[in-house]
């Protein structure tokens, strides 16, 4: 931001302006004066003067804030930096203050030199300098020496003609021979002189050749022999313009073949994966729909009638007994009863791993499965470990390894199939 422009504007408006830490600039009216050397009368004018004094007002700060549309703190920052730079330049040499002049510093005193000379002062009242004639013999001599512009030169035509005429050139024999002729008693003889004049060069026209005249024959001049260079016939070159330019790799047949193979391989992999998932799903559904397995026991109770008919289960669903039947029931059919004492599994220790015995879509199915596990003497309880499925917990364990060991023990007992059991992390 050039603050000297704002200083000049404010000085023209107010007539004086104070700059902190520098001083006060004033516009002082000067009288008109006469310059004897130039012979001109100059009108009154205003000159800028400087006085080094303490400035306490903030007129310049407010003017900067209004004109540049900045805050007071920003305007004060720019003003302080301007004052600091001006004082530093004044100590080195001279500091320019816009079109007002220059400041210089000697010890602690500031000196101001105005930018406008007195002879080139600005007219403040609309008058221009007036030229006056000097008095005395000097002015008359100056008037006499001035050329007359209105007078026309005399005999201008004759003068021009004399300059155009050619100048004669004289030729003297005495000068060329370097000696004078002998003196005779007779009357002196005039020395011969020759006079030549410069004449313009005249071109003579070429003689006209008539039709009957034949031009002179041109005699051929011998020319130097030029060594002959044997020309070698160039071998025929096959025209390659018919060749098709090389196509990019993505337009060639191998690229398309490879792309087709990749797509076919991806399709085969997807089909095999879907087939395997379908087979697994079918096997799971079939196992769930099949007859009760070893993890469930079907108990048939006798119907209320005179004759008791008890249907024994199939041989594969029987549960081995450790004690022999009494003799009174030796010939009576066996009645399978569920093992009493199967517990409900509870995660009282807040373990992180659970042994899962199956997952179902509804809570009722999970409860039914847990009851079947309890029927064969395996503790179970339904729980929800995901948003969509309900699962059957066969036990909670602190580590994954302990869960796997419990799974192996159940499989060894022959009560549960291996593929139905798995260990997973319990989600909290």
Write the layout of secondary structure elements.
Layout: H1 3-14, E1 16-19, E2 23-30, E3 33-35, E4 40-42, E5 45-51, H2 59-68, H3 72-92, E6 95-97, E7 101-106, E8 109-114, E9 130-131, H4 137-145, H5 156-164, E10 169-172, H6 173-177, E11 193-196, H7 253-289, E12 353-360, H8 363-375, E13 381-383, E14 390-397, H9 400-413, E15 422-425
Antiparallel strand pairs: 1-2, 2-5, 3-4, 4-9, 6-7, 7-8, 10-11, 12-14, 12-15, 13-14
Helix pairs in contact: 1-2, 2-3
Protein name: SPOR domain-containing protein
Transmembrane segments: 253-272
GO molecular function: peptidoglycan binding
Summary tags:
about 425 residues; alpha+beta; Alpha-Beta Plaits; four-stranded antiparallel sheet; three-stranded antiparallel sheet; 9 helices; about 30% helix; flat
Question: What does this entry look like structurally?
Answer:
α1 crosses α2 and α2 packs across α3 (72-92). The chain has helices at 3-14, 59-68, 72-92, 137-145, 156-164, 173-177, 253-289, 363-375, 400-413; strands at 16-19, 23-30, 33-35, 40-42, 45-51, 95-97, 101-106, 109-114, 130-131, 169-172, 193-196, 353-360, 381-383, 390-397, 422-425. By secondary structure, it is an alpha+beta fold. Among the domains are: 3-130, no CATH class; 353-425, Alpha-Beta Plaits. It contains 9 helices and 15 strands. Mean pLDDT is 71; it is low at 139-177, 179-189, 290-299 and 301-340. The strands form 5 sheets. Strands 13-14-12-15 form a 4-stranded antiparallel sheet, covered by helices on one side. A hairpin with a 3-residue loop joins β6 (95-97) and β7.
